[in-house]
């Protein structure tokens, strides 16, 4: 059975009127997701898609971390049968205030820091494809209560197109800010020395780099092949935990299992590299980098705190910038988080947003309104507690007691 025949059985195809007829299917099983690999790869290489929207990243997440959710991949094909759009969703049932809700959410939106999640839309057809996908969501409205799309780049065409589709259909849309992501755009043909001169830590980088070079057993290694990555990934985990301790989400066994599964997939597509800086034959700093299109992304890092005074993290980050420039990338992205060290290298910021959508007067709509009310009440009580506590310390317990009584009533359906 070929993949297309299976998908057509999975959901009844529908066509939209217009100059091009689109066929929409819902892929609900892992084998259907697997069958999309080559077409998905081709589509994700076009336009400006993030590495977190690649088939490798999302398929790995589905296998390792998507156990509570059911696949719900909306695919759109043109009249020639070519894959033109994908809305990579998953369906999860959750309880809120005693009510069972059906949530449609991005694949990959939990546990692994995926930024810039988005619909895959063929360049030039974005508006038509977004409208077709919105129609498809309307036709299956009995299957979901809330559509939640987290960590979409604020300037993505998907945001504006979805907002327009919601207005046209009378759906309620809630938009909230999520993360800020520092990044740097390189000038055409820019050399590392020129770039370094305009950063805040140029002198320190050069001085620390020279000192490290003089140490016995100093080396910089770049792991890209599967066998190299199999050795480098445990070292990255070790150094990351040394730096951040158990409070880092990367230390969770299921998250590490995800990376152990997804790194070979990314390696086969040439999209991952793990850096190790070693002294005396022992790794003391590591960077986990992702590469897709024209963007070099700093995913995460770690270092041995005993080497902090020697700025091993600074030196290794500098070396990743050197490689990004030498290999012709046009952009270096630090992804989420505005830690101070990132501002030493990057001057620009992107913002991601969360969109939540529900049909008016539906169960999802009522829950979204109740959650907004609860959030507002939390802010009010927090402010009251702060002001009362400044003058009357015993009053803090009073506001806590009042909140304990009021909060259950705010949970609609509780």
TrEMBL record:
Q: What class of enzyme is it?
A: transferase
Give the GO molecular function terms. acyltransferase activity
What is the species of this protein? Archangium lansingense
Keywords assigned by UniProt? Acyltransferase, Transferase
InterPro entries to which the protein is assigned, alphabetical: Acyl_CoA_acyltransferase (IPR016181), BioF2-like_GNAT_dom (IPR038740)
Pfam families in the record: Acetyltransf_6
Top-rank taxon of the source lineage equals: Bacteria
- Kindly provide the name given to this protein in its UniProt entry: GNAT family N-acetyltransferase
Q: What EC number(s) has UniProt assigned to this enzyme?
A: 2.3.1.-
Q: Where is the BioF2-like acetyltransferase domain?
A: 204-343
